[in-house]
Amino acid sequence: MNCGNCQNNNNCPYMNSFNNPPCNSSNNSQRDMLNKIMALNFAINDLALYLDTHPTDNNAIRMHCEYSEKQIVLTEEYQKLYGPLTINFTSNTWDWIDEPWPWERGAY
Predict the structure, then answer these.
(1) Residue 99 neighbours by CB under 8 Å, 6+ apart
(2) d(Cα 46, Cα 87) in Å, to the nearest integer?
(3) Could you tell me the pTM of the whole model?
(4) Buried b (16+ CB within 10 A) or exposed e, 60-80
(5) Best CA proximity match to 40, nearest among 75, 12, 77
(6) At what angle do helices 28-53 and 58-82 cross, to 10 degrees?
(7) Got the DSSP string for 17-78?
(8) CB-side exposure of 9: number of CA atoms within 13 Å?
(9) Per-residue model confidence as pLDDT tens for the chain (108 residues)
(10) Tell me, what DSSP letter sits at residue 5?
C-alpha cells in the first residue's frame, strides 16, 4: 500500500507507525504533528467514553490527563507554527485571515 507521500510501497514509515516520521515530502513535520494531534484527540475521547462506565479506574484517569496535557502542548505548538486549528486559537492579531486558506496551499 502506498502512503501517498512517496513511491515506497512496502516499507514506508508513514504507514508503519504514527511515531515514525513520514516519508520525505515538504510538509512532513506539519503532517506528523497533525497526525499526532488527531491520535491524541481520539485517545482522549475513547478514554472519556471508557471512564463514563468505569469512573474509578485510576490508570485510565491518569492516561486521560496525560494525553490531554500532551494534546494541549502539541496543539499550541502546531498553531504557533502553522496557524489555527480551531476558532479557539488565541492571538493578539486577526491576521490569519490574510494567510492562504488550506485549499489554497496545495495538496498535503
Answers:
(1) 83
(2) 23
(3) 0.62
(4) beebbeebbeebeeebeebbe
(5) 75
(6) 150
(7) -TTSPPSS-TTHHHHHHHHHHHHHHHHHHHHHHHHHH-TT-HHHHHHHHHHHHHHHHHHHHH
(8) 1
(9) 334 434 444 444 433 433 444 444 445 799 999 999 999 999 999 999 999 999 999 999 999 999 999 999 999 999 888 878 877 766 666 666 777 776 777 665
(10) S
Write out pLDDT tens, residues 80-96: 888 788 777 666 666 66
The C-alpha cell that represents 22 in the structure block: 513520514
What single letter denotes the amino acid at residue 36? K
Say if CB 22 and CB 14 are below 8 A apart: yes
Q: Which three cell numbers stand for residue 9?
A: 510501497
The pLDDT, as a whole number, for residue 15 is 39
Q: Cell for 65?
A: 490527563
Residue 14's Cβ-side half-sphere holds a number of Cα atoms within 13 Å equal to: 21
